[in-house]
């Protein structure tokens, strides 16, 4: 968050007020999700493990009608008490990620959503994803600007479904891999 330490992570997990740089409401509502190679590599690494639900944070920005996902951070470590659900993120771990990205420079990034992977590493399917979407909506995790990216394998290939809430309806979004090499 170039020049600002008040990101969505800081607002949500530390209770800090929004700063002018962090106001993602100024973004246009995304129509598709573009997953950059760094995020794709992280998600592929997560698919090397199985046996439990995994999740984490998506960092990026909105550019035109595309939500750019640059980094897919883990939620923390599985044995941490703060990481009992794939939608949970350890506050210290998440703030560390946000601070590191702010210090690194580059395009202003924010926490733009969350990712999940099912225990069997397969694409979970809409009904299971809807369970997580509803849980995330109850805690203001997902809305029209903040997405759920459900990742897995389908026919031995990396696959994902992205969703956002638009009013009271869930809207699927197209997912494009490797938008920026």
Structure description:
With 181 residues, the protein is α/β, with parallel strands linked by helices. It has one domain: Cytidine Deaminase, domain 2 (3-Layer(aba) Sandwich). Helix content is 24%, strand content 35%. It has helices spanning 8-14, 37-46, 91-104, 126-138, and strands spanning 32-35, 54-63, 66-74, 110-122, 147-154, 157-166, 169-177. The protein has a 7-stranded mixed barrel with strand order 1-3-2-4-5-6-7. Strand 2 (54-63) and strand 3 form a beta hairpin. Helix 1 (8-14) runs antiparallel to helix 3. It is globular, with a radius of gyration of 15 Å.
Query: What is the averaged pLDDT score?
Result: 85
Biggest β-sheet, characterized? 7 strands, mixed, barrel
The tally of helices reads 4
Report the span from N to C terminus. Answer: 22 Å
Tell me the fraction of residues in β-strands, as a range. Answer: 25-35%
Class computed from helices, strands and strand pairing:
alpha/beta
Name of the CATH class: Alpha Beta
Order of helices and strands: HEHEEHEHEEE
Shape designation = globular
Radius of gyration: 15 Å
The CATH homologous superfamily name equals Cytidine Deaminase, domain 2
- The largest sheet has its strands arranged as 1-3-2-4-5-6-7
Main traits of this protein?
Cytidine Deaminase, domain 2; seven-stranded mixed beta barrel; 4 helices; disordered N terminus; 181 residues; alpha/beta
Would you summarize the structure shown here?
With 181 residues, this protein is α/β, with parallel strands linked by helices. It has four helices and seven strands; from the N terminus they run H-E-H-E-E-H-E-H-E-E-E.
């Amino acid at each position: 968050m170039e020049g600002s330490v008040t990101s969505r992570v800081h607002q949500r997990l530390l209770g800090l007020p929004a700063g002018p740089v962090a106001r993602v409401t100024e973004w246009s509502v995304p129509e598709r999700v573009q997953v950059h190679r760094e995020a794709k590599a992280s998600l592929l690494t997560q698919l090397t493990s199985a046996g439990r639900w995994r999740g984490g944070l998506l960092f990026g920005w909105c550019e035109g009608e595309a939500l750019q996902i640059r980094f897919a951070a883990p939620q923390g470590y599985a044995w941490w008490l703060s990481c009992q659900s794939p939608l949970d993120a350890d506050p210290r771990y998440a703030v560390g990620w946000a601070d590191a990205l702010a210090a690194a420079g580059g395009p202003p990034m924010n926490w733009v959503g969350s990712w999940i992977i099912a225990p069997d590493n397969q694409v979970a399917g809409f009904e299971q994803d809807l369970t997580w979407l509803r849980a995330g909506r109850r805690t203001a995790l997902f809305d029209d600007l903040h997405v759920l990216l459900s990742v897995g394998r389908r026919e031995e290939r990396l696959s994902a479904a992205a969703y956002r809430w638009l009013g009271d309806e869930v809207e699927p979004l197209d997912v494009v891999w490797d938008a920026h090499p």
